[in-house]
Amino acid sequence: MMSRFLLLHCLILISLFITAATTNTSSTITDRDALLALKAHITHDPTNFLAKNWNTSTTVCNWTGVACDVHSFRVTVLNISSLNLTGTIPSQLGNLSSLQSLNLSFNRLSGSIPSAIFTIYTLKKVSLRENQLSGAFSSFIFNKSSLQHLDFSHNTLSGEIPANICSSLPFLDTLALSKNMLHGGIPSALSNCTYLQILHLSYNDFSGAVPKDIGNLSKLKELYLGRNRLQGEIPREFGNLTELERLSLAGNNLQGMILNFLLFYFSYACF
C-alpha cells in the first residue's frame, strides 16, 4: 500500500515538473518570437548588432541587450538604445508579459507606439526618447500598472495629456514628454501623480495657465515647462516644492516673481 502511495506521489511530482517545463518552454518561445518580430521590423542596422547577436542558435537570455528572470527565463529587460536603428516597433512586443524595462532610445524608429506595450502589467520603465515616433499621445490606453518611468522626449507625438493619466499610472515618478507636438492645457490632475519627481514638458505647444495644483507635488525635483505658450501668473504654490532642484519656465508669457525662498532650493534654474 505504501509503495503504491509513493509511486503515485512520484508520478504527481513528475507530472507537475513536466507541466512547469512545458509552460516555461512555451513562454520563452513567445518571448523569442516577439524579439524576432522586432528584429524583422528593423530596416537598417548600421552596425549589424541584431544580425550578430540575435539568432536562434542561442537562447534569448544570451542575446545582447536582453536580460531574463533567473527562475522563469522570461525576458525582463530589453535595452537596444543608441544603435541608430531604423524601422518600426511591432505590436508583438506586448507579448513580453514579464518585461519590466524597455529602452529603445536614441535610434531612428518611426511610426506609432503600439498600445499593446502598455498592457504589460509588470512594466516599470519605458524609454523611447530621441526617435521619430508619431501618433496621438492621448490615444494610449494605460492600464493600471506598476509603470514608474515614461520618457517619450524628442519625438513627434501629438494630442493632449489625458486627464486621467495619474489614475491609470498611480506610481509614475518620471513623465518626460519634451520636444514633441503636444498641445492643449496642462491638466491640473497631474497633481494626483503623488510620486512624481521629474516632469518635462518643454518645447511643445501647451497653452493656458500653469496649474497651481502642481505645487502639491511634494516629491518633484525637476519641472521643465519652457518654450510653450503658457500664460498668466506663476503660481505661488510653487513655493511648496521644497524638493525642487531644476526649473525651466523660459519662452512663455508668464508673469510674476519667483520667490526668493523658492530659489534657495535650486541647484540649477533656467527661467
From TrEMBL:
It holds the Pfam family LRRNT_2. Residues 1-22 form the signal peptide. Its main location: other. Keywords: Leucine-rich repeat, Membrane, Repeat, Signal, Transmembrane, Transmembrane helix. It is found in: Cell envelope; Membrane. Residues 30-69 form the Leucine-rich repeat-containing N-terminal plant-type domain. InterPro entries: Leu-rich_rpt (IPR001611), Leu-rich_rpt_typical-subtyp (IPR003591), LRR_dom_sf (IPR032675), LRR_N_plant-typ (IPR013210), PGIP (IPR051848). SUPFAM superfamilies: L domain-like. One of its GO terms (cellular component) is membrane. Belongs to the polygalacturonase-inhibiting protein family. This is Leucine-rich repeat-containing N-terminal plant-type domain-containing protein. It comes from Citrus unshiu (Satsuma mandarin).
